[in-house]
């Protein structure tokens, strides 16, 4: 939310950390009482309050005003809209920065006539937005265990949600996407994952293999397989690791790398999450 070192020196900001992925970024802020000078953000800004109480006000150049809210409250500010804030006490926020092009693409997936103009709007509670923010915060804290594919999936979910509930034509965007992921297309995608699981995969790549938009693909893949693309990839990698562990003497670090995990700690944590045991314990079970 702060654009320059001068702003930082004069602002009530006391803590900041951030992470970014393709199309979406997250900043985690803590503030003390004070004022944030008027400024703009180049992407759609979605604020999620983590404070137990709200005490202040956000205002935009267009005249929109929103009282700073208690935990779970959200406020959406469209890209390029100048805004300022006054904080009456300690406050903690997540600031999600979403590329406007994602909302445009989501709108084109629904209908050429759907308007994709994001508007200023606040809500006392929006469980989906709060969930996306907390999931991104968990990614930031875990150094990206879910990886690029997970963050891109969350960006798509948020883009569609903004289209449906935070645009000038909110409500029209609730129409369902047409068509599905055919058996042939699904087989192509699964084969592509099997051939490329060792590297970082993007949602756009998988959607391209299926010949679909990213928004349509993410929805239909989950409908067809019962799991989201990033979850399928993690499960595939864990199954590959189990096969390598069962083979015998390959070092655990190499097993993790050969299975597509970039860090040993990520490998161990995700393997245990899906199997209930560590890679070393699993190897001892299959080779007592």
Kindly describe this structure:
The chain is of the alpha+beta class and 288 residues long. The protein has three domains: 11-165, Sandwich (Jelly Rolls); 176-226; 237-286, Arc Repressor Mutant, subunit A. It is built from eleven helices and ten strands. The protein has helices spanning 5-10, 100-110, 127-141, 147-165, 183-196, 203-210, 214-225, 229-247, 252-258, 264-275, 279-286, and strands at residues 13-21, 24-31, 34-39, 44-49, 56-60, 65-67, 74-77, 83-87, 91-98, 121-123. A six-stranded antiparallel beta sheet has the order 1-2-9-4-7-10. A hairpin with a 2-residue loop joins strand 1 and strand 2. Helix 3 (127-141) packs antiparallel against helix 4 (147-165). The model is unreliable at 1-9 and 171-178 (pLDDT under 50).
How are the SSEs ordered, and which strands pair?
Blueprint: H1 5-10, E1 13-21, E2 24-31, E3 34-39, E4 44-49, E5 56-60, E6 65-67, E7 74-77, E8 83-87, E9 91-98, H2 100-110, E10 121-123, H3 127-141, H4 147-165, H5 183-196, H6 203-210, H7 214-225, H8 229-247, H9 252-258, H10 264-275, H11 279-286
By CATH, the architecture of the largest domain is named: Sandwich
When the domains are counted, the total is 3
Number of strands: 10
The top-level CATH class of the largest domain is Mainly Beta
Report the mean per-residue pLDDT as an integer: 85
Q: What structural class do the secondary elements suggest?
A: alpha+beta
- The level of helicity is 40-55%
Helix and strand sequence: HEEEEEEEEEHEHHHHHHHHH
Q: Report Rg.
A: 21 Å
Query: What is the percentage of strand-forming residues?
Result: 15-25%
In the predicted model, the low-confidence regions spanning at least 5 consecutive residues are 1-9, 171-178
**Given the structure, what is the number of helices?**
11
Lateral arrangement of strands in the main beta sheet: 1-2-9-4-7-10
Characterize the main sheet: 6 strands, antiparallel
CATH topology of the largest domain: Jelly Rolls
């Amino acid at each position: 939310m702060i654009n320059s070192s001068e702003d930082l020196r004069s602002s009530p900001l006391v803590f900041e950390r951030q992470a970014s992925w393709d199309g979406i970024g997250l900043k985690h802020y803590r503030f003390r009482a004070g004022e944030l000078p008027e400024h703009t953000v180049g992407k759609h800004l979605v604020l999620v309050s983590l404070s137990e109480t709200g005490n202040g006000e956000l205002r935009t150049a267009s005249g929109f005003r929103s009282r700073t809210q208690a935990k779970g409250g959200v406020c959406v500010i469209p890209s390029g809209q100048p805004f300022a804030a006054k904080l009456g006490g300690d406050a903690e926020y997540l600031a999600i920065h979403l590329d406007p092009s994602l909302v445009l693409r989501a709108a084109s997936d629904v209908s050429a006539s759907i308007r994709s103009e994001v508007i200023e709007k606040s809500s006392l509670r929006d469980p989906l937005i709060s969930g996306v923010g907390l999931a991104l915060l968990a990614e930031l804290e875990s150094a990206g265990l879910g990886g690029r594919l997970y963050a891109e999936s969350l960006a798509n979910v948020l883009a569609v949600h903004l289209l449906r509930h935070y645009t000038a034509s909110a409500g029209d965007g609730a129409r369902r996407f047409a068509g599905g992921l055919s058996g042939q297309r699904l087989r192509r995608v699964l084969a592509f994952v099997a051939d490329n699981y060792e590297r970082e995969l993007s949602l756009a790549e998988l959607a391209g293999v299926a010949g679909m938009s990213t928004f349509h693909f993410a929805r239909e893949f989950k409908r067809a397989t019962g799991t989201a693309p990033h979850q399928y990839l993690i499960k595939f990698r864990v199954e590959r690791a189990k096969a390598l562990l069962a083979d015998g003497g390959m070092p655990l670090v190499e097993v993790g790398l050969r299975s597509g995990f970039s860090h040993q700690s990520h490998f161990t944590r995700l393997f245990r999450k899906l199997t209930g045991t560590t890679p070393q314990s699993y190897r001892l079970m299959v080779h007592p």
